[in-house]
Amino acid sequence: MALTKTDITEKIQQNLNISRTTAYNIMEDFLKIIKESLTDGDDVMISGFGKFCVNEKKSRKGRNPATNEEMNLPARRVVTFKCSGKLRNLINGEPA
Q1: Would you call 48 exposed, middle or buried from its count of C-beta atoms within 10 A (0-12, 13-18, 19+)?
Q2: Is 46 in the same domain as 92?
Q3: Strands 50-57 and 60-63, how do they pair?
Q4: What share of the chain is helix, strand, coil (3-state, %, to 5)?
Q5: pLDDT of residue 15
Q6: 36 with 76, same domain?
Q7: 87, part of any domain
Q8: What is the pLDDT of residues 35-51, one digit of tens each?
Q9: Residues 59-78: b if buried by 16+ CB within 10 A, e if exposed
C-alpha cells in the first residue's frame, strides 16, 4: 500500500504534536516549493534522500500500439528521481 499525502500529514501532526490544519499547511507548502522549483527547471536535492531532476526529452517518432499508426511525439520535460546512497543502503538493509 502506498503512503499518501494524508498519511504523511498525520505523521507530521503526531511527531510535532501540532494541529491537523498546521500539519496539512506544512505539507502543502513543502510540496509547493518543490513544484515551483521543478516548474522553473531547477533540480531539487534533499540531502540523505535524493535528487529530483528535470530532463528535456527531444521530439521523436513513435507508434500507437493499438492502431500501429506512426506519430510524432513532441518534445517535453520529465522529472526523474535518483535516490541518495544513504537511502539506497537503508532500503537494502545496509548501514547508512
Answers
A1: exposed
A2: yes
A3: unpaired
A4: 40, 30, 30
A5: 96
A6: no
A7: yes
A8: 999 999 999 999 999 99
A9: eeeeeeeeeeeeeeeeeeee
Q: What is the pLDDT of residues 44-77, one digit of tens each?
A: 999 999 999 999 999 999 999 999 999 999 999 9
Separation between Cα atoms, residue 6 and residue 22, nearest integer Å: 13
Same domain, 10 and 52: no
* H helix runs in the chain, sequence order: 5-16, 20-39, 85-91
Full residue range of the structural domain in which residue 54 is found: 42-60+72-96
Is 66 contained in some domain?
Answer: no
Residue 26 three-state SS = helix
Q: Which triple of cell numbers denotes residue 40?
A: 522553473
| pLDDT, position 95 | 79
Number of structural domains in the chain: 2
